């Protein structure tokens, strides 16, 4: 099953990533100034995957990627893939596991294990 992972960027903004069952990042969200906005969009996206559009693109260097669009707004951009088939596999994984994905929040960088 896939997972949404909320984390903090070096700039101080928040983001969420959708990772596959194997732990690979499939897509990354835009930047959010507030953590609660980031969490809310991750929850929202999880609930509307069936109505999202996945728009495919090809870079000038021949790599493939897609954007996750809902209600005319780009929510996230995928990682780069070497083939169009791999892009479709990434989209298929999102459609299959996205609505059941759990949300993990690592934005605080609180470590369980002490030094």
Q: Order of strands in the sheet with the most strands?
A: 4-5-6-3-2-1-7
CATH architecture: Roll
> How many strands, what sense, and barrel or not for the largest sheet?
7 strands, mixed
Low-pLDDT stretches: none
Name of the level-1 CATH class? Mainly Beta
Radius of gyration: 14 Å
In CATH, the topology is named PH-domain like
What overall form do the CA principal axes indicate? globular
Strand content: 25-35%
How many H/I helical runs? 2
- State the end-to-end CA separation: 32 Å
By helix and strand content, what is the structural category? alpha+beta
Helix content: 10-25%
**What is the typical, i.e. mean, pLDDT?**
88
SSE arrangement, N to C: EEEHEEEHE
Overall number of domains: 1
Oligomer: single chain
Structure summary, number of beta strands: 7
Walkthrough of the structure:
With 115 residues, the protein is an alpha+beta fold. It has one domain (3-105): PH-domain like. The protein contains 2 helices and 7 strands, in the order E-E-E-H-E-E-E-H-E. It has helices at 35-47, 84-97; strands spanning 3-8, 14-19, 25-29, 53-58, 64-70, 73-78, 102-105. It has a 7-stranded mixed beta sheet, covered by helices on one side. Residues 60-105 form the DUF1508 domain.
């Amino acid at each position: 099953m896939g997972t949404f992972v909320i984390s903090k960027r070096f700039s101080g903004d928040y983001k969420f990533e959708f990772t596959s069952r194997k732990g690979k990042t499939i897509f990354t969200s835009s930047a959010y100034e507030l953590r609660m906005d980031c969490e809310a969009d991750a929850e929202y996206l999880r609930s509307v995957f069936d109505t999202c559009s996945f728009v495919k693109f090809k870079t000038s260097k021949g790599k493939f990627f897609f954007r996750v669009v809902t209600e005319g707004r780009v929510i996230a951009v995928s990682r780069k893939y070497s083939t169009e088939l791999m892009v479709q596999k990434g989209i298929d994984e999102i459609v299959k596991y996205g609505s059941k994905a759990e949300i993990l929040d690592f934005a605080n960088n609180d470590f369980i294990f002490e030094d």
